[in-house]
Design goal:
Largest sheet: 16 strands, antiparallel, barrel
CATH architecture: Beta Barrel
Order of helices and strands: HEEEHHEEHEEEEEEEEEEE
Radius of gyration: 21 Å
Number of strands: 16
Distance between the termini: 26 Å
């Protein structure tokens, strides 16, 4: 209960310091260029499975059924200088509660109580005119669909986005190899965790190639042991390729994941997934979007299911976005799921294989 007042005081102190420093004559590099911003995403969702607890299964956004609620709200301070940068963003919402529920708790002062409040807390320094080092808790380098709904082609996230890291905690080195090629190396605590699970660290890499002004091709990876020190090492490896093509009026994206993890008693478990997303500008303020996807996790590396049934699920969605005003975005999406097994917890519907349909509408304001 004492964390939020302390963080609010810290934010206010930073903002006051930035204002005083801006008014003081100093070299350009020593003047903090700090901007303040925020975001609120309010939603209502209807899940045809009508979960009795109102918590929707297997997804983080939107997380609640038949309820007006806040998916994500945050305030931020962003520092941007020629050789320094940073971001402090404090957050809350049902997606935060859902996504940080598995945050490890080892010891008395670790866990999600603090980490779920920190969307990002990073500081960065320019090591070279083409290289930056950033340290802290920051958005993951994996995936096309990120944490902030406003920036994604569809409102809900694909299953491969929900079951790969949204955030990491560690250090990131970014190198602009050429004007068209960017490389990153990450040394992090682990697979979407701020608190550690063991004595090991994980490694992530990313390459982005701007093939043409409209086409980007990317490769991302993760390698790390996610087991506690008391258990045998089980190295998890993810390889991801994605491409985004954005000709005038259109946006097409393809993401493919392939992962594996060693078994404690020998052998290897695997998972695969993919998503194909399209977006079409109907007018200057209206967009139509759609997504088809699949996630196959038969060995339960990423997901636990009722009865320990293999997770093999497909999903499709269609959405409509309307820019009501420069800072206001209204998004509506209809989504359906289909599984090869009866894995979906069902309230009114007995068909756990068919999976639920979801209708969600959201109004997001950028401050």
């Amino acid at each position: 209960m004492h964390i939020l007042p302390a963080l609010a005081f810290a934010v206010a102190t930073l903002a006051d310091t930035a204002t005083r420093d801006t008014l003081t004559a100093a070299p350009a590099d020593s003047i903090p260029a700090v901007t303040i911003g925020g975001f609120i995403d309010a939603y209502y969702a209807w899940d045809s499975g009508r979960p009795r607890s109102l918590d929707r299964a297997f997804t983080t956004q939107p997380a609640r059924h038949n309820e007006f609620n806040i998916n994500l709200a945050y305030v931020e301070l962003v520092l941007a200088q020629p050789r320094l940068r940073g971001r402090l963003a404090l957050q809350a919402g049902t997606s935060v509660q859902a996504n940080y529920a598995a945050e490890p708790r080892v010891g008395a002062v670790s866990g999600g109580d603090l980490s779920r409040l920190l969307q990002e807390a990073t500081v960065g320094v320019q090591l070279h005119r083409r290289a930056w080092l950033d340290v802290g808790t920051y958005f993951s380098h994996i995936g096309l669909e990120g944490w902030i709904s406003r920036d994604n082609p569809t409102y809900t996230r694909s299953l491969i986005a929900d079951y790969t890291p949204y955030y990491l905690s560690g250090a990131r080195l970014t190198w602009q190899v050429t004007p068209r090629l960017t490389a990153q190396v990450h040394l992090v605590n682990g697979w979407q965790n701020v608190s550690e699970t063991n004595a090991d660290k994980a490694l992530g890499t990313r390459l982005d190639w701007q093939v043409t002004p409209a086409l980007v091709v990317s490769w991302r990876s993760f390698v790390g042991n996610e087991q506690p020190d008391s258990a045998a090492t089980q190295t998890r490896v993810l390889q991801q390729v994605l491409a985004r093509w954005a000709p005038p009026g259109w946006e097409w994206s393809l993401v493919l994941d392939a992962g594996r993890q060693g078994r404690g008693g020998g052998g290897t478990d695997t998972w695969q997934g993919g998503a194909f997303i399209g977006r079409r500008a109907l007018t200057s303020t209206t967009w139509l979007s759609g997504r088809v996807e699949a996630l196959l996790d038969p060995d339960h590396i990423l997901l636990a299911t009722p009865g320990n049934q293999p997770f093999r699920t497909r999903s499709a969605s269609v959405g409509l976005d309307v820019q009501l005003e420069r800072r206001a975005l209204w998004r509506t999406e209809l989504r359906g799921f289909r599984s090869s097994a009866r894995i979906w917890p069902s309230g009114a519907s007995p068909d756990g294989a068919r999976g639920p349909s979801l209708l969600v509408t959201s109004l997001a304001i950028t401050l």
